[in-house]
Design goal:
This protein has ten helices and ten strands. The protein is an alpha/beta fold.
Amino acid sequence: MSGFDADWLRLREPLDAAARDEALAARFAGVLQARRARPSDGLRIVDLAAGTGANLRALAPRLGGEQHWTLVDLDPALLAAQPVELERWAGGRRWACERADDGVTVRSGTASWQARGRTLDLAASLEALDGGAFDAVVTTAFLDLVSAAWLERFAAWLAAARLPLLATLSVDGRREWVPPLPGDAAIDRAFRLHQGGDKGFGASLGIGAVAHLTACLSALGFEVSTARSDWRIDASRRPLLERLAAEAAQAACEAEPAQRSVFEAWAAARAAQARDARLALEVGHLDLLALPPA
């Protein structure tokens, strides 16, 4: 997997935070609170493909109390950025933040959130994670990058450990550029072809990932709920719009190189609209909550 640098993750984080489904997050928090035998018990959460730790920043204040986060990623640059981004986040809220050799601890009043990064190739070594060492699993913008076979392994791993899962911001194929352009349909078709490529886990399921994992987990007795978590990007977010348009055109060119001139003309038109504050975009996503059988 590549292309998910810290700058890109920082750019998208506010949109992710606004798009997350509040009802599913509240149910997830309620389940974890119920798992605490005592208020002082620490929750143990593993974040798969954690990037710079956005899930911790979104969920730790909601969960409260003592928490121990394992932030799994393969990219050494993102692992190195985790303590930097957590310190930046805590400092902006005037929370204490302590860095040690084994990770970072953020303290907010009576709450204490410990985070440590872990390098792991999830494609090859998912099962190296001891599910019994955790109370829950989270992941963001990851399911659509993996294959059907990997999701089936993941479902079996979750079932063996009886772990709840909150998986947020998986793309579902809906993209609406405003205003529309004649090239939108061609870009969308080629972009979806590119999404189905191998991102290190075999042929990606892309927009079909949430449905496939839902079917796998439901067959294993999980209660699975999904909800929309769409990005709504207005003209004020020019850098993000420019990057999304450029990346869509680049992916389309890689998928259908014979159409490069069409895609490059489309990208130039979108860049001009972004500069003139005339461009907006809605990107469809789904959040998934899966609870193991009682």
